[in-house]
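Input sequence (201 aa), recorded before submission:
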Amino acid sequence: MLAVSKRHSVEKIRALHAIGQSCFGENYVQEALDKMQQLEGLGIEWHFIGPMQSNKTRAVAHHFDWVHSVDREKILRRLSAQRPADCEPLNVCIQVNIDREAQKSGVMPEAASGLARLCSDLPGLRLRGLMCIPEIGSEQHDPAISYARMHELFRELNTEGLPVDTLSMGMSADLEAAVSNGSTMVRIGTDLFGPRPSGAQ
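Predicted structure, token format:
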């Protein structure tokens, strides 16, 4: 379980860590760096789950343990080149735009294999798997269908010999559907921390 701590206080993170939660996900680089400084020494595993921009790759490569939102070759190559040699390889999930939504980030499903293969070949990176944010559930769309397609794509990568072990999908509102369709890592914010503070995005 990944605790999504964006816009939540250091005190809340510290309290959740004290009862055994060790993995936390952040969407905004500067906010995350401030929290890392204040929580240094706790042994937290930090995951970057926000949109991956070129001007943020150095900070992510230097300070995070995981990144879930890689969706193009340029970002992979920058992360590889910028990961410090004295750090463990950066764990990477390829973000897939499983429902082909124009407003969302993510590689198209048919291109995921090529990007994953490139990741597995680059120094300083460790391919771990796939991530998605499906279309919001409605009368017209059941997210479970999206999750089932993601699981099939994940299985295809394994069949191709790619060393993937992580399927990052599912949030507070739909974690049951995600888990039942093969998720190995759910990203939970509201159910752990409560609503984000007023005015937070």
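Checked by second reader. The longest strand covers residues 125-132.
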